[in-house]
């Protein structure tokens, strides 16, 4: 075919529409911009298909594009519809479950502890879902796909399966926010298909509170392991705050645990004050000579003492109980040997109580009431009578 336009004509053209032939038109606007248009006839209609802006798309490229879409037209298909379908398919290819899940994770990092570096948020998906569904466009995923993936672990690894399903719900909502057509009820439908899990929750074994004094008395060699475990028992704190305890966190008889060492989502937890009993302060004094790099309880080589060190100690003694279980021992003692109000007792463990509205108005951490309880707990642990503590209600 003989074309009508040349590159020089295009460069010098004034505002208007110029036909090149075979349905290709050059359109020059009054604002100086220009573009290529493909005009064709199909079913008594004369659609116009944009082929790109000039000079980003040159004359030769525009002619090649027209030749390609002419071939589609000869095949009886509408070039515009074919192109739109190709775009949707390309978009779906980019919006696989794996891609969207990682985007959702990135968007959520700011509220996760250490920006999610520990991997606990993403690992249920990475281990149990993405290996089988990661390359599938998220818009195509339904409850049957999710059931097929999670059914093998629904009863045997129930905790991981439920976490994976919860994460998937968040990912689906993220996809919907992106404008993708996903089934927001897919995860709930999956739960219905999977049914009730047969898994029985196993709580962390705890030492009965009446046996704690004997165990505490056995921690008597003055080592970092024994001293750290004593503070764990006395403070009823979680493992990480004790292991990463630093002297600058302690002022008088109050230990302020930084928010980053507390359990909970980033931005939703704050520093937590722990009243220290005289016994706890004595343990800290004994630990000071061992301090390294600012940490009271360093490991033998580098860093701080590990959870495993405590667990192995208890295992060697033939104990079923684990270090974290001392929080349960303490909480049971509060319930059975004191009349501590529920809120005060739960605050001792840094648990959140009450509704969101109630917490907005009730901001006390009950430090003075807790100070009395922690001193009595220390008295009991070190061989006191463990008599009922009478709390003064305010």
Automatic annotation (TrEMBL):
Keywords of this entry: DNA integration, DNA recombination, DNA-binding
InterPro entries attached to this UniProt entry: DNA_brk_join_enz (IPR011010), Integrase-like_cat_sf (IPR013762), Integrase_catalytic (IPR002104), Integrase_DNA-bd_sf (IPR038488), Integrase_DNA_bind_dom (IPR025166), Integrase_recombinase_N (IPR010998), Phage_int_M (IPR053876), Phage_Integrase (IPR050808)
Classification via Pfam families: Arm-DNA-bind_3, Phage_int_M, Phage_integrase
A GO molecular-function annotation: DNA binding
Residues of the Tyr recombinase domain: 202-374
Amino-acid biosynthesis found in the keyword field: no
Keyword DNA-binding attached: yes
Domain of life of the organism encoding this protein: Bacteria
Family: Belongs to the 'phage' integrase family.
Record PANTHER family: PROPHAGE INTEGRASE, PROPHAGE INTEGRASE INTS-RELATED
Record-given protein name: Integrase arm-type DNA-binding domain-containing protein
Lineage of source species: Bacteria, Pseudomonadati, Pseudomonadota, Alphaproteobacteria, Rhodobacterales
């Amino acid at each position: 075919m003989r074309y009508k336009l040349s590159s020089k004509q295009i460069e010098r053209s004034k505002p208007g529409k110029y036909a090149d032939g075979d349905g290709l038109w050059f359109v020059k606007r009054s604002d100086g911009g220009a573009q290529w248009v493909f005009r064709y006839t199909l079913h008594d209609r004369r659609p116009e298909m944009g082929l790109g802006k000039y000079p980003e798309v040159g004359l030769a490229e525009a002619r090649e594009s027209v030749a390609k879409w002419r071939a589609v037209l000869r095949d009886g298909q509408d070039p515009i519809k074919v192109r739109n379908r190709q775009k949707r398919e390309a978009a779906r290819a980019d919006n696989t479950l794996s891609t969207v899940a990682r985007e959702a994770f990135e968007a959520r990092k700011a509220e996760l502890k250490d920006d999610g570096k520990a991997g606990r948020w993403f690992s249920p998906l990475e281990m149990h879902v993405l290996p089988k569904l990661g390359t599938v466009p998220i818009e195509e995923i339904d409850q049957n796909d999710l059931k097929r993936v999670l059914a093998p672990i629904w009863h045997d690894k129930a905790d991981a399966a439920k976490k994976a399903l919860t994460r998937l719900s968040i990912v689906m909502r993220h996809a919907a926010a992106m404008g993708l057509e996903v089934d927001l009820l897919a995860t709930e439908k999956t739960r219905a298909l999977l049914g009730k899990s047969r898994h029985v929750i196993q709580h962390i074994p705890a030492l009965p509170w009446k046996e704690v004094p004997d165990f505490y008395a056995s921690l008597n060699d003055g080592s970092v392991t024994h001293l750290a475990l004593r503070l764990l028992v006395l403070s009823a704190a979680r493992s990480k705050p004790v292991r990463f305890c630093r002297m600058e966190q302690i002022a008088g008889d109050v230990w302020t645990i930084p928010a980053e060492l507390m359990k909970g989502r980033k931005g939703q937890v704050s520093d937590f004050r722990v009243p220290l009993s005289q016994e706890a302060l004595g343990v800290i004094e004994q630990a000071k000579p061992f301090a390294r790099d600012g940490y009271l309880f360093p490991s033998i080589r580098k860093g701080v003492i590990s959870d495993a060190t405590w667990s192995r100690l208890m295992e060697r003694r033939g104990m079923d109980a684990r270090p974290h279980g001392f929080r349960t021992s303490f909480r049971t003692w509060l319930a059975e040997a004191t009349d501590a109000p529920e809120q005060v007792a739960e605050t001792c463990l840094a648990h959140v109580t009450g509704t969101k509205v109630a917490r907005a108005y009730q901001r006390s951490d009950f430090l003075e009431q807790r100070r009395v309880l922690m001193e009595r707990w220390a008295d009991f642990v070190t061989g006191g009578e463990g008599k009922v503590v009478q709390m003064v209600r305010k």
